[in-house]
Amino acid sequence: MLLDKSAVNYPQIADHKDKVMAAIKDWYGGYRIGKCSEKYNPRSVCAFIEFFCSQLKGSKKKAALSVPDALQSAAKVYLIDAGKPGLIETLIDKHRDQAADTIEQLIGEYKNRASDDASPKPASQSNHAVSLQLPKPDVRRIVASDECSTEEILALCLSAGYLIQNEPGSVCIPNREMYTVWCTISKNADK
Questions:
Q1: Which residues fall within 8 angstroms of residue 128, CB to CB, at 6 or more apart?
Q2: What is the DSSP letter of 191?
Q3: Max alpha carbon distance in the chain (Å)?
Q4: How far apart are CA 113 and CA 128, in angstroms?
Q5: 116: which DSSP letter?
Q6: Residue 93 to residues 7, 46, 90, 149, Cα–Cα distance (Å)
Q7: For residue range 22-62, what is the model confidence (pLDDT) as tens digits?
Q8: What is the pLDDT of residues 139-184, one digit of tens each?
Q9: CA dist list (Å): 73 to 6, 31, 103, 121, 171
Q10: HSE-CB of 12 using CA atoms within 13 angstroms
């Protein structure tokens, strides 16, 4: 709906709506509520459309971009401030040694899903996932404790939207936005 409203002011959106929707689905889709699997991260979608439109419009200092260039420029992480570690990133960093293998497994499973197709299937339609038994996260205990299990950290990540439950007992990265976040978390481990 927001995309349709934006197309009123930017007719090139209507001409390339399939490409724009594919980018939105790839980067911000993959979430589920109940049995409905076509849910998107609303904050990221709104930020993407706003930035995408600004790229199409241009400014006094910068020329307007073509739709493909604007898509490439606008498709990025909006959910978190990439420069500021949040609670999840801080916890993962604090318990990095025990979670490193699982993080690499999650990233590898997303890459497998991406290589199965020209663009990754939504996580809800994928057979690639990391199997785990996840407890209900006790956020206060996890934050305060020097010891917590990988499963507790991943349960918190599941609650925060960094992961989705693919099937009972398995989790996976839902979309390219979260894949990028997980790659950044993994890369920061190497520092």
A1: 109, 110, 112, 113, 116, 166, 172
A2: -
A3: 54
A4: 6
A5: T
A6: 42, 29, 5, 13
A7: 999 999 998 877 777 778 888 899 999 999 999 998 876 78
A8: 777 777 777 788 888 888 888 888 988 777 788 899 999 999 899 8
A9: 17, 23, 27, 22, 29
A10: 14
